[in-house]
Amino acid sequence: MSKKVVLAEKPSVGRDLARVLGANQKGHGYFEGKEYIVTWGLGHLVTHADPEHYGEQYKNWRLEELPMLPKRLDLVVIKQTSRQFHSVKKVLNRKDVSEIIIATDAGREGELVARWILVKAHVNKPVKRLWISSVTDKAIKDGFKKLKDGKQYENLYAAAEARAEADWYVGINGTRALTTKHNAQLSCGRVQTPTLAMLADREKAIQSFVPKPFETVQVKTQDGLALRWFDEKSGDERIFDAKKAKEIQAKLNGSQLTITNVQAKTKRVPAPHLYDLTELQREANKRFGYSAKETLASLQRLYEQHKAVTYPRTDSRFLSSDLVETLSERLQAIDVQPFRKTVATAKKQGLSHAKKQMVNDAKVSDHHALIPTEQAVAASAMSDKEYKLYQLIVRRFLANFFPPSEFEQTTVEAKANEELLRTKGERLITPGWRAEDLDESGEEAESKLPQLTKGDNKAIANVSLTQGKTSPPPRFNEGSLLTAMEKPAQFMAEKDAAISKTLAEAGGIGTVATRADIIEKLFSSFLIEKKGKELYVTSKAKQLLELVPEELKSAALTAEWEQRLERIVQGKEKKAAFIADMKEYAKSVVGQVKADTTTFRHDNKTGEKCPECGKFLLEVNGKKGKMRVCQDRECGYRKNIAMTTNARCPKCKKKLELRGQGEGQVFACVCGHREKKAQFEERRKHSKNKNVSKREVNNYMKKQNKEDDFANSALAEQLAKLGLNKKD
Description:
5 domains, Topoisomerase I, domain 3, Topo_IA_cen_sub3, DNA topoisomerase 3, Topo_IA_cen_sub2, magnesium, 7-stranded antiparallel sheet, DNA topoisomerase type I (single strand cut, ATP-independent) activity, alpha+beta
């Protein structure tokens, strides 16, 4: 009897598929049953070859050998996971296997994981595709009843491969050109460079901003009504002429106002749309301070391990109509505390409003919005971070079962001594979805006004002036940077209708699945740093943007590329044409770097010399603290000198920084508290809270050192380019 091989992306999903399909016999890197053999990758098992694969001349980084433009990019097995690859290859090529079912993540990158394994394993058997948005038992069973023909996804594979090849040609050539020209670790890429340019443009706008002083005039009547002066032509309440402000104050003092207009409008505010990945990353950053990467990692566990939520890497905020029949089951799955009361009310509401609010087939592409699955999950099984995200998803889902809130919004205008005044207020009519404690914004929904009628006269009791200054645009945090990557046209200094249209059609720069990694790459390359929640560009970043070819900084250019990738998915463009253009572009980038006469200067040199090569070390701010790194990229020496830890200050409870090396290590806090590491460990030993032991502190430090050493090395940058250090 012939069998079918099911190829999953990760072992955890593979185990779930095997259990549901009855493949219970364990083999080396697979499970086998009567009908199915289930095997898996560890993320990517296959990737593009290193540059030196194409010739000895590329082994050493030399400017004169660029650009590197192989006719085609070869695939190689990743050494670290080669054992699993050979297990998968053996299974795929068994004579009793007649069909392959791709069950990797249902998206562009998941398609690439599977197809590259099939190509490298030299498999040419019929292919089917499992395309599901959650990994519950029910979703898996339903998915296997509706398997798709693998040919339907050939274009998706072509687009995925085109993206990977474009990143190789443009990213590796650009990075090698800049790095060898200036002997500094300088990386560039299709998405990271325009993202960095947006951060730098915002920094320039802040630095060049000149605040203007202004005043506002507030009026209070004898019965307590508060109004503000406004300009009839512009509607602005700010007065930029101090003399004029004082004149208005004098004019209004002791006078009487007459209500000239009372306008009441009913305002309906529906529940916010369901979450897509970017919106949830923004919300989690705003509410809990989670990075985009942290949120995605926790969501992936909620999806794969707990089976509590649907596929996270989605850019849709709606559901498709075929999911309506599952809504009742999803409500049943979340019918636990603290949602029980709200779920009961939602059930009484019925599905009619939910369908109208949540379902829109035209706005669902590969995957629908993030919602809970039909499988109940215990809060105790989740980490604190996972449970907080799960609660956000559940609350947003429930909110969409309820009708809009209704407000009466009233605008009152008045006149006093020919000067215009106004005030606004809101009165809640019907709470709708807000009644269920599902409003995550925390904003006040009501500000009442007394009953007022046109023609009412009131005596003015007090007129005051408040001084202020215009503010520069705010610095980006991770949440607002995600917004800028999603909608870059709103953040560009020069408004261009054609560019804005391109950016809108492309869905911004990067994809929902890659934006978190791009932000992490900017941190690990020391191009951005965080102070509090705000992001700052480093001196290295500012200089890099001076050295990078102008068009590579354009959000419009990378958006055009994303658009072309989408056209490949739709079958409207050939991959070969796109790659030919990418090669030409890589050639142009290298040419511009070679011709550039600008020099790169390290302005963060310390007085300490590198113990390996004798050159002065540079001090940089990593995401986890301060580091010293050798300025010579070929040396690669680095050491941590201060790390932000999870240990808390006994005085102010802020996170402590661990400074120094070896026996002399000291925990220090911004409040001034200092203690040696040995003292800290002794205090922990005798404290009631023994959550952090000496062993745990040391393990934590080893882990941090390991993460920093790998994430920030020149080797890691190249591995990232080639997909070798792809994390789940």
